[in-house]
Design goal:
This is Aminotransferase. One of its GO terms (biological process) is amino acid metabolic process. It comes from Companilactobacillus versmoldensis DSM 14857 = KCTC 3814. This protein is of the alpha/beta class. It has 2 domains: 130 residues, Aspartate Aminotransferase, domain 1 (Alpha-Beta Complex); 223 residues, Aspartate Aminotransferase, domain 2. Helix content is 42%, strand content 13%. Helix 5 links the parallel strand 3 and strand 4. Helix 3 runs parallel beside helix 10, helix 4 runs parallel beside helix 5 and helix 11 packs parallel to helix 13. It starts with 22 loop residues before the first helix and ends with a helix.
Length: 398
Amino acid sequence: MPELSKSVASIENKLVKPIEDDKILMFNSDIAGIPGIVKLTLGEPDFNVPEHVKDAAVKSIEDNESHYTPQKGIPGLRKAISNYLATDYDVKYDPDTEVIVTIGATEAIYTSLYTILNPGDKVIVPTPTFSIYMDDIAILGGQAVEVDTSKDDFKITPDRLKEVLANEGKGAKAMIINYPGNPTGVVYTKAELEALADVIRDTPLLVISDEIYSQLVYGEKHTSFAKVLPGQTILINGLSKSHAMIGYRIGYIAAPKGFVDEAAKVHSFTVTCPSNPAQYAAQEALENGLDDPIEMRKVYQKRRDYIVEQLNNLGYDTVEPDGAFYVFPKIPAKFNLSSETFCRRLAKEALVGVVPGDAFGDAGEGYFGISYATSMDDIKEGISRLAKFTDSLLETID
């Protein structure tokens, strides 16, 4: 195995070097080897991809669809995305000029930020939220302005946004909003989005709206930020969560042509194009599988109801999420444990894997994240072990 030569060891990107690996994945990897552990860590659906979607991927292989596709994605998929957004969310995008098919929502986020950021530019990030946003901003030389939403039911309010813009607005290029939220499951109502849009409208600020969980809403129908502020919104979505297609890696950007023209350059230089089978599968999912998420959503809601009730009964204050498949319980202050310490002890002593809250930004400290995108059997076993662990902590402080 080759060892990096000392003569080139100092060659590095100074923006990349200080960034650690993703804390969520690192923690999951650290505890994965513990024998018998029940993992409630990652947002990876335990459902299979619908059969008709898999068949479409297989057919594309059998039809020898093995060549480069248009860099923005195959026309049929872009049209399906456009039709889906128009039908479900009443937002209209031209499939030829305003849609890019990406390698998952992850690439869509990176490409969007790369398109707009220059070194030193700021991005407003309400936290706790998906940690990749802060890392992407840093790797591109930007500055993430974290906004603690823990005292506002994990939502950024118009007044808080006005305050942030007054203090940090100079150099701010965008705000990233993620809803239904990871790790909180919060959902913004149309009225809440309109109030935020009123603050942002006609300011030099873009909204990167990550709506990857939009098909997993348990109450009021999802409203896209693009509905209330179309000219300043970069809409990001995909098939990973709605159709359990995480490994297929199909996401997309929908935005005004002026932005898409530039983002398409970044996308094409970075990945060329997504794979053929995944694109044809995604097209099938959006053309003939819009009802596929319904049963999944019913199962997730049952899991949510169970886990929220149990956590609150155990003394872990938990806001009931309106979407996604995460809960974000608060660690009782009387335990006097950081989120990292609590989660490591829970993994080692009780064999339950959850995610430290600070992995989702500074505002997540004092909480821990649980994914219920796993079987009810695992959830019940995890809660049972958490109950015993909680009793052991209470005994030490009585």
